[in-house]
TrEMBL record:
Sorted UniProt keywords: 2Fe-2S, Disulfide bond, Iron, Iron-sulfur, Metal-binding
Gene3D superfamilies, per the entry: Rieske [2Fe-2S] iron-sulphur domain
Keyword RNA-binding belongs to the record: no
Residue ranges that the Swiss-Prot or TrEMBL entry lists as coiled coil: none
Protein species of origin: Nitrososphaera viennensis EN76
UniProt xrefs under PANTHER family: CYTOCHROME B-C1 COMPLEX SUBUNIT RIESKE, MITOCHONDRIAL (PTHR10134)
Residues in Rieske domain copies: 78-184
Protein name (database record): Putative Rieske 2Fe-2S domain cytochrome b6-f complex iron-sulfur subunit
Any Pfam family hit: Rieske
Gene Ontology molecular function terms on file: 2 iron, 2 sulfur cluster binding; metal ion binding
Length: 206
């Protein structure tokens, strides 16, 4: 289904040896304590009124609808959205709303045709995006080349794919479609075994 793993694109600048060693030391510390830390208490996960479903609000202010949102297309959305534009610019509130390509079920007019994943890459928190091009059709991080499966949110190439669960699968939001075709985000549960934790990951239940 996927092309062979491709080399990551070149990065914009070089990292000094000192900075690289500092980064490695920090990463080692994080990995040492990973099994023992409740990351949901420390990572800046989105907060707000999450007890009720929320509309999938597109950048133009309209609510996404199965009747007119294109197949094999994506938009960056904010969730949960607030009245504070500064808060809305937080990376941890940025999600990629994807209608899958036709061969992956995107032509269906129900919730199974859609995915919403956190845009925060699980490697070093750059923002990735979905590419709909023929032979591509995947999420790609521009910083270090991590690639994500649009069906599951699992990293299949690049440094994020080398990380252990749950830090190789993107957090996601569940959606439902009403009788008018409008798409809604269901209240999430921020834990690795449910919707995941932004910046940390999600266990893939198969």
């Amino acid at each position: 289904m996927y092309m062979a793993q491709t080399p990551p694109p070149p990065t914009g600048g070089k990292v000094s040896r000192r900075d690289f060693l500092k980064l490695m030391a920090a990463a080692g510390t994080v990995m040492t304590f990973t099994p023992f830390v409740d990351w949901g208490k420390f990572l800046p996960n989105p907060t707000g009124n999450l007890s009720e479903r929320q509309p999938v609000e597109l950048p133009d202010g309209s609510q996404a609808n199965v009747k007119d949102f294109p197949v094999n297309h994506s938009e960056a959305i904010i969730y949960p959205k607030t009245d504070d534009e500064v808060l809305n610019q937080e990376a941890f509130r940025t999600w990629q709303f994807i209608r899958l390509p036709e061969e992956l079920g995107g032509a269906k007019n129900d919730a199974s045709a859609f995915r919403i994943y956190s845009m925060v890459c699980l490697h070093l928190w750059c923002l990735w995006k979905y590419f709909p091009d023929t032979g591509r059709k995947r999420g790609e991080c521009p910083c270090h080349g991590s690639m994500y499966d649009p069906m599951t949110g699992k990293a299949f190439a690049g440094p994020a794919s080398l990380q252990g669960p749950p830090s190789n699968v993107l957090p996601m939001l569940n959606v439902e479609v009403d009788k008018d075709g409008k798409i809604w985000i269901m209240p999430p549960t921020w834990s690795p075994d449910k919707n995941g934790i932004v910046g940390y990951g999600r266990f893939l239940n198969v």
